[in-house]
Amino acid sequence: METSKIAKQMIEYQRTLFENTYKVMTVIQDYSGNMIQGYLKQFPWMTEDSRKPLVDSFEFLKTARNDYKKAIDQGFDRWEKQADDN
């Protein structure tokens, strides 16, 4: 019984650590993307068509980041369920 309680605390600690790290990473990536896009708008020779691949890559990054978080959350949920079963 005590082992199950320790496992749950460890899982909750790891989940909180991941959530906080993910939030920081998200803020930094979003800020960097906005800063780069704003910087590129300053160049008159950069047309919207030439910026589009870069903007698309930022959108792909956000999608991949969200998919990664979903996978990690599912892993934590399975881990917690397994700790509850024991």
Verbal overview:
This protein is mainly alpha-helical and 86 residues long. It has one domain. Helix content is 90%, strand content 0%. It is elongated.
Provide a brief overview of the structure.
This protein is mostly helical and 86 residues long.
The number of E-state strands comes to 0
Question: What structural category do the secondary elements indicate?
Answer: mainly alpha
Distance between the termini: 8 Å
The percentage helix is over 70%
What shape does the CA trace take?
elongated
How confident overall, as mean pLDDT? 90
β-sheet strand percentage: under 5%
Spans of at least 5 consecutive residues whose pLDDT stays below 50 are: none
Q: Main sheet? A: none
**Helix segment count?**
2
Series of secondary-structure elements, N-terminal to C-terminal: HH
Q: In angstroms, what is the radius of gyration?
A: 20 Å
Total domain modules: 1
What descriptors fit this protein?
86 residues, mainly alpha, 0% strand
How are the secondary structure elements laid out?
Layout: H1 2-40, H2 48-85
